[in-house]
Amino acid sequence: MSKSELVGLKLIELDGLTLDRHKVENVSKGNAMVAIPEKSLVRVRASRSRIEKQINDGKVVYGVNTGFGKLSDIEIDRDDIGKLQLNLLRADAVGVGDPLPTPVVRAMMTLRANSLAKGFSGIREETLKLLIDMINEGVHPVVPSKGSVGASGDLAPLAHIAIVLVGEGKAEYKGQILPGGEALKRAGLRPVVLEAKEGLALINGTQCMSGVGVIALNEAERVGLAADMAACLTMEALKGIISAFDSELLAVRPHPELEFVASRMRKWLEGSKRITHQGEIRVQDSYSIRCIPQVHGASWQAFNYVDERLLVEMNSATDNPIVLESGEVISGGHFHGQPIALSMDFLKVAAAEWANISERRTERLVNPQLSGLSPFLAVDPGLECGLMVAQYAAASLVSENKVLAHPASVDSIPTSANQEDHVSMGTIASRQAREIIHNSARVIAIEMICASQAIYLEKAEKELAPATRGYLEKIREICPPLEGDRAISDEMEELAQYILRENVLN
């Protein structure tokens, strides 16, 4: 970014203590600058001095003057300490697959800088400052999406970021993919020459799985809210029974998220002339409607758990060894991604369930035996197929989600000649979670389109609650009612992207 582009942006301080997912999203989208406050720089300098004292005292410290992993018993000559760090980046930049999107890379860089700012990693201030400058100036390393096993940190993905700091690798700058050194030069930045521990400090952490995870969680929040809104529209289309959402009823099973869902839906449905009560038309609705608070609420429980775990992880030191304030440098296991791996596997299941039950509501909308509406919501059924195959698409996405929801964290393949004999596969879990969330947004978009079409056929727009009628207008801006068969693939995808991008509550 140019200096003029930076003017007016929010400034987010990375102090290693107060980062949250909303701040990360602002940075990832380019809506905020970052800075390290002086109080954190004091800790960074102190941590660096402790590393230098260890070297000057002739101590043997893992990753400082030893090899890595299984090679940790090999001592490195003092004259080769800088070369050791550069070699580490070169050897570990072995990611494969499509590059991670720029917002994910920016999130990774932000999380890594925040972790280093805690002052337990021994990095030099100038190296950390270059990472900050790259974020602010829009130098985005090209980071292949695959190649991390999620322990010893996200070595490969983070190495692709770190290697740009020394002027190697590849980076995107102002829409162009350039050699890392050239990208820095065009941004007015200069590469650093790494010193003891710095290469390891830059790559030994969980910031790829956490970066993908934070962005996925923010998207999941919007998808979950959209699922609640889609359910409201379906209830109005099918004259659903609101009695099952009664607060006194839900209080006898006091999981708070059940009432959160129900109260939100009661508020959105307030004023609707389409909603019924128990016994007016029928005694009970199907589970996909009657059990919305229980099913959606359980997914929100999982969401809240993952939110708590990621908040801790964002403000943690996750590298190895850790430079303690006492001056000791201790090797531990903070790089292991298991807390995030399990969390992201949990999020996968939660998001998949939003889609699972949504697809069942879609089936109730398009199936005339269940809805009492025109078959497949066609204007002229028989001549027209209506939304018959839109439900097929939803079914396909739900089935794909079931495969992706298999837990990545239960797998482990030893690495580094069995020195690293248990790994988390947390980065795989994070990538799968985001894919499931995107699929779920598409399934919910399909439900919204089907509910919109049902309301159109019923000529019921004026009978809707004000809140749902307002959201229906947004849906129809993207996907107008079908007057006859037409290809709506692009409209389905556009609505899904809208769901991923925009909060229903806004």
Topology:
Layout: H1 3-6, E1 10-13, H2 21-28, E2 32-35, H3 38-56, H4 81-92, E3 96-99, H5 102-116, H6 125-137, E4 140-141, E5 144-146, H7 155-165, E6 170-173, E7 176-179, H8 180-186, H9 198-203, H10 207-238, H11 247-251, H12 256-268, H13 287-290, H14 292-314, E8 322-323, E9 329-330, H15 338-366, H16 368-371, H17 388-404, H18 426-457, H19 466-478, H20 489-501
Parallel strand pairs: 1-2
Antiparallel strand pairs: 3-5, 4-6, 6-7, 8-9
Could you spell the SSE succession in H and E letters?
HEHEHHEHHEEHEEHHHHHHHEEHHHHHH
Uncertain segments: none
Structural class: mainly alpha
Biggest pleated sheet: 3 strands, antiparallel
User: How many runs of DSSP E, i.e. beta strands?
Assistant: 9
Q: Give the termini separation.
A: 28 Å
Radius of gyration: 26 Å
Specify the helix fraction band. 55-70%
Mean pLDDT across the residues is 95
Report the β-strand fraction as a percent range: 5-15%
Shape designation = elongated
Query: Main sheet: which strands, in order across?
Result: 4-6-7
How many helices? The count is: 20
